[in-house]
Amino acid sequence: MISTVSEGSAISRSLALSRATEAELVPILTRHKLYGVAKRVVDIAGSAVFIACVLSWLVPVLAVLIRLDSRGPVFFLQWRVGKYGKAFRCFKFRTMVVNAQADWLQATHHDGRITRLGKFLRESNLDEFPQFINVLLGHMSIVGPRPHMLADFRRFSALIPGYSFRNLIRPGITGLSQVKGYCGPAADPESISQRFQWDRNYVQQANFWLDLKIIGLTAKKHIRFLMEAL
After folding, report:
1. What is d(CA 195, CA 201) in angstroms, rounded to the nearest whole number?
2. Helix or strand run (H / E) with residue 16
3. Are the C-beta atoms of 42 and 109 separated by less than 8 Å?
4. Alpha-carbon span 64 to 55, nearest angstrom
5. In angstroms, rounded to a whole number, what is the distance separating the alpha carbons of residues 52 and 58?
6. In this structure, is the dihedral angle defined by the CA atoms of residues 225, 120, 48 and 10, taken in order, positive or negative?
7. Structural domain that includes position 139
8. Could you give the number of structural domains in the chain?
9. Which of 5-19, 105-119, 134-148 is modeled with the greatest confidence?
10. Sign of the alpha-carbon torsion through 7, 115, 127, 200
11. Is a pLDDT exceeding 50 seen at residue 13?
């Protein structure tokens, strides 16, 4: 279930930087130095509170349910591509049966590998909640482009020139693409391109007001889903 890529390996920082024009890159990096420090403080505080107040009781509950639903570990750890192309182990609640294809084959909407509980966890995005641990560790941010597994990153980069521009900042638990409706598997070049455009827009325009708007829209979506499920 875990890729053989060594921890701390990089897709390449130079690749991420080489794809952006100098005129575009300099103001973005300058702005992100100040914004990035403040955002990191918020990420640490927010993730610590979430872990203490939510994951502290949610993990034991879901651990029991996941084990009852199917054999295997509670958590699924997968190498994902982070800031500047650096690989990190991303935490998720396991939503599939243990399988050898997990690190390179995207899940589909009617994927037979997904467990009964896993379907609910995916639809509600509860499977992503352990990624607040990644936020606390500095691998991710609460808001940012979603981190890709290594195989998807290579595939998308081959399709779209400058794709690694989105890796100039930390990936997020939620992002602009997600609130614009681009969730789940990226099944075709058009959806991959649309997601990239929204991710690119976020990198270019990132600020606290935009982050708060994304968090608010994400929370609204989750509340609506849970109310409909009940």
Report:
1. 10
2. helix 13-18
3. no
4. 14
5. 10
6. negative
7. 13-229
8. 1
9. 134-148
10. positive
11. no
List, for residues 91-121, the tens digit of each pLDDT value: 999 999 999 888 888 888 788 999 999 999 9
In-domain check, residue 6: no
In a domain, 3, yes or no: no
Token reading at 49:
């509170």
Mean pLDDT of 34-38: 86
Better-scored residue on pLDDT, 26 or 61: 61
> Is residue 1 included in any domain, yes or no?
no
Mode of pairing for the β-strands spanning 141-143 and 75-81:
unpaired
Q: How far apart are CA 28 and CA 116, in angstroms?
A: 43
Angle (nearest 5°) at CA 226 between 222 and 230: 170
How many residues are there in the chain?
230
pTM score of the predicted model: 0.86
Q: Could you tell me the two tokens for 4?
A: 């053989």
Say which residue the tokens 């930390």 belong to: 170
Question: What is the rounded average pLDDT for all residues in the chain?
Answer: 86
Query: Can you read off the two tokens belonging to residue 45?
Result: 């505080």
Instruction: Tell me whether residue 29 is in a domain.
Output: yes
In the prediction, which pLDDT does 12 show? 44
